[in-house]
Specification:
homodimer; 12% strand; eight-stranded mixed sheet; 6-phosphogluconate dehydrogenase C-terminal fold; alpha/beta; 280 residues; Rossmann fold
Chain lengths: 280, 280
């Protein structure tokens, strides 16, 4: 199988590495509009050849869209316009509703499989790509009934070979759930970084102390605005829902602390502890 | 040197392991008011013998208070009441102002060194103790001018042997800074866990998706209320300051998102990215 990775950054690059590790492709083509990324992807051996988008569409059996989510819908349509019935296109973006709406009436819609592998780091670019990145993580496949059985099967086999449990959802469900388990974590990290940076203006040595707890809650604040702004904008209504609830929870915490409400605080913390049912 | 660990949990147990690893002590005594902890600490080899507090005071060259912060000031006074001039007492708690105020006029104050090794995990109890826990982390020593030079030197040598850079601060400074780099992270994690658990009542499958970002921002929500409630209460005013600022930052984020203010969001994220100056 010949695969074209369109956008050879953190996710696209890691996808390429996983394809190689599992011997899924005999050739990996790379498309990227940044010259620096193209050179780096070749240097790191993420892809075998750099090609144009047109060449990728002409040659590849599988095309993987790994670009910021605001660029995915338009490019998806352009690719579907030119695709043959033996080719498959997937995206690996974090949100799906707009994309799936945009392509819903396209005559080649069934060659597209909308996927969201649940992995990422706070870093970006081809040099951030990691070996074995996806293994053990879940992948969401959205609106599977809109994809042709053979296209779906090709993609499912790849993700199973990567070692990823597959979860099926509608694109609307996936965008709601992702707001809760991924997008909000990024917003709280950005806000926490800003909170501490604000204080640092008064207090010089504040960061001498930054310990493990701080690092793990704030590391996502290093994430790229180029990736995350489009996600926040496209998933705005779901994110606003969860953000309002999160601010509400923090207000309750603040009020309990102001009132020295030990019982209330203890009860809230015990309830929060039950999160260990979910994350080990 | 003979050391007594008072409170053989996550921190006390890890302290004992580090003492052993670096051959600092020929004997480690353990004091704990939980029978389960005492048995576990012996079974895991964290301590050589279980003794009473009185025996610990009679025998040990160094006494390490590793109990919840609401219990430290009273026990510190009781120990200082009975201590000889060749003994040293330290605490390893997360806040200092109340403790240092309580012991400030004690005739044996100079045998006490107030320390905060900047390490922890979301787990508790002797079975949570880790080898090499403190290496590479900072330790804060508060109000060093209140400690006798020989007591200070003993403690500094131990922490240097553990591989910990030492930072000196007043107890008030340490409590302020710790609110920003440790305590707030715990509150946001608790609140984030509650936010998601609240939503889970409506949406069954929300946690199938929980990816790496979620885990790292929410893992502190597994932390013990027994450890953290006393910290929040004792450091209430500093924590309220930072909590108000954090809620304010989240409100700004929310408003920018409501208004589709892309420039504002991008600017805020870029500013937050500068946190990479501090955490690598």
């Amino acid at each position: 199988m010949k695969t074209a990775i369109i956008g050879i950054g953190l996710i696209g690059g890691s996808f390429a590495l996983s394809l190689r590790e599992h011997n899924i492709c005999n050739q990996i083509l790379g498309v990227d509009n940044s010259e620096a990324n193209r050179a780096k992807a070749l240097e790191l051996g993420l892809v075998d050849r750099i090609v144009s988008l047109e060449e990728a569409i002409a040659e590849a059996d599988l095309l993987v869209l790994a670009i910021p989510v605001d660029a995915i819908p338009i490019l998806a349509v352009k690719i579907l316009n030119k695709i043959r019935p033996d080719q498959t296109v997937i995206d690996v973006g974090s949100i799906k509703s707009e994309l799936c709406e945009m392509i819903s009436q396209h005559p080649n819609r069934n060659r597209f499989v909308a996927t969201h592998p649940m992995w990422g780091t706070e870093y970006s670019g081809p040099e951030a790509a990691q070996h074995g990145a996806f293994t053990g993580r879940s992948v969401v496949i959205c609106d599977r009934e809109c994809s042709a059985p053979d296209a779906l099967q090709t993609v499912e086999e790849i993700y199973r070979t990567f070692g990823m449990p597959i979860i099926y959802m509608s694109s609307e469900e996936q965008d709601l759930h992702t707001a809760y388990v991924s997008h909000i974590s990024h917003i709280t990290s950005f806000a926490l970084a800003l909170t501490v940076l604000e204080k640092e203006r008064e207090e010089e040595h504040i960061f001498d102390l930054a310990g493990g707890g701080f690092e793990s809650t704030v590391r996502l604040a290093k994430s790229s605005p180029e990736t995350w702004l489009p996600i926040f904008i496209q998933n705005k209504y779901n994110i606003l829902d969860v953000l309002r609830e999160h601010i509400h929870q923090l207000q309750i915490f603040r009020i309990m602390l102001e009132k020295d409400d030990r019982e209330g605080l203890k009860k809230a913390m015990r309830k929060a502890n039950t999160i260990n049912r979910i994350i080990k």
